Amino acid sequence: MDKLVIEGGKPLSGTIVIQGAKNAALPILAASMLVEGKVMLDHVPRLLDIDVMLNILRELGCEAVHEGQTVTLDTSTANSSHIPEALMRQMRSSIFLMGPLLARFGKVTVYQPGGCAIGERKIDLHLQGLTALGATVEEEGSRIVCCAGRLKGTEIHLDFPSVGATENIMMAAVLAEGMTTITNAAREPEIQDLQHFLNRMGAKIIGAGTDTITVEGVNRLEPCRYQVIPDRIVTGTVMVAAAATRGQVTLQHTNPVHLTSLIHVLRRAGVQIAVDGDIIKIGSSSRPKAIDRVVTSPYPAFPTDLQSQVMVLLALADGVSVMKETIFEGRFKHVDELCRMGADIRVDLNSAFIRGVSRLYGATVEATDLRAGAALVIAGLAAQGKTVVEQVHHIDRGYDRIETMLGRLGARIQRVPAAMDDRVYR
Ligand code: EPZ
Q1: Are 333 and 312 in contact (CB under 8 A)?
Q2: How far is CA 280 from CA 234, 237, 257, in A?
Q3: Does the N-terminal or the C-terminal CB of the chain have fewer CB atoms within 10 Å?
């Protein structure tokens, strides 16, 4: 497995253009299965998760080409709705292919995606939604077979505003007969992007971004070309890295509105942030201030996907902060690794008590999941000395060559491919 070797202590500076949003591109790629024809998507980042989704679409009979940041799909040749278990286990988010495949083929076979490092990742809300639309669901071991004639619109209330379940139900409802209303829907920007994409193809959806989404079923959709929104989590990750290294960074092609909660937290920590259209300027020249309490919650509140990154900043703050994680039960796996770099953090149930220290020290650490890995990179950039981050494939799922991106801001970071001799970075 590749490693990242980081020489810390250098403030980031310069300008960076933010990649397209992984968590918008994935459901939009899945939604492309609702239409027969050529779909083109721009600003799709080159990531492991995108590669897996494109391989699944090819496995289902589609043609899929990713050139630069543009994906060209031909879904007219799709001839299967059976997603291989091995591919599902590579990326659990493939579960939101269920809705589109069920709507198009009347049957879909998937496999329990299983949990991951951050939690159990249940899919009961997805299955309840599809059942409400008239599907039958049979579970045989890990295999799930879902069948339906034409789905029928209905009212669906989500016990929890699940992002994936909201997206799956939206996509299934697009070709259903009649009206579907989803209440307690998730409100993330990626759901708004999915609505815009589907409506561009002729769907009739309103309400994405609010807790009530209404879908009026239509008989067919027309292919389109669409540009995916900027990645708000990658934007936030770079912002935290700039603050943690006391740098000065300009981020282009962002959507600051999607980061209101993070900007609020960083300003409370004493970080200077200026917003001008799709540009964010961020700078910090002093030690961050502690924040008594940061709680992760569904959008528009503070996002769980930026929890581990902000924890690194608070680990360097002047004082004690508390971070509470309410979305995923296993999202503190970066804490032990940060403590090995000199952080003073104690976890009690779903709260982390962070006593800021003046300095972190380089160490060899292991990424356990995507955002924890990103947090360890930020810690390495801020630490004194050399940090080696192992299991970098977790990071590559969501960041397009993170070492190139940060290197453009002056970071001293290099990727050591697995095959190379480990003497390279001693
Ligand atoms: C999406 O995951 C994102 N992934 C995650 O980003 C993000 O952390 C999460 O939303 C929350 O914002 C993509 O969009 C591809 P959920 P998703 O369904 O849809 C429980 C990243 O780092 N739940 O909102 O899987 C679940 O167990 C990734 O880019 C059920 O109980 O998230 C979890 O505790 C990580 N039953 C909570 O809801 C269900 O049927 C949130 O899950 C579904 C979910």
Answers
A1: no
A2: 13, 13, 11
A3: C
Domain locations along the chain? 3-19+230-425, 22-227
Ligand 1 atom closest to Cα of residue 120: 27
d(CA 55, CA 57): 5
Same fold, 3-19+230-425 and 22-227: yes
Residue type, 62: C
Closest CA to 342 of 383, 291, 387: 383
Whether pLDDT at 423 is above 70: no
Long-range contacts formed by 398-402: CB under 8 A, 24+ apart: 398/22, 398/47, 398/49, 398/233, 398/234, 398/370, 398/371, 398/374, 399/19, 399/47, 399/234, 399/237, 399/374, 400/19, 400/45, 400/46, 400/47, 401/46, 402/4, 402/374, 402/377
pLDDT in tens, 92-147: 889 989 999 999 999 999 998 876 778 887 899 999 999 999 999 999 999 999 99
Show the ligand 1 pocket: residues with CB < 6 angstroms. Answer: 23, 26, 93, 119-126, 160, 162-165, 186, 304-305, 327-328, 370-371, 398
Report d(CA 49, CA 149) in Å as an integer. Answer: 31
Q: Read off the pLDDT of residues 46-59 as tens digits, 9 standing for 90 and up.
A: 999 999 999 999 99
State if pTM tops 0.90: yes
Gap from CA of 121 to ligand 1 centroid (Å) = 7
CA of 394 from ligand 1 middle (Å) equals: 17
Measure the CA–CA gap between 140 and 124, rounded to whole angstroms: 15
116 is catalytic: yes
Nearest of 175, 168, 219 to residue 194 by alpha carbon: 168
Q: What is the DSSP letter of 133?
A: T
Q: Which residues neighbour 140 within 8 Å (Cβ) at sequence distance 6 or greater? A: none
What's the angle, vertex CA 68, arms to CA 64 and CA 71, rounded to 5?
25
Nearest alpha carbon, ligand 1 atom 26: 121
Residues shown for the chain: 426
DSSP secondary structure letter of residue 389: E
Task: Give the CATH superfamily of 22-227.
Answer: Enolpyruvate transferase domain (3.65.10.10)
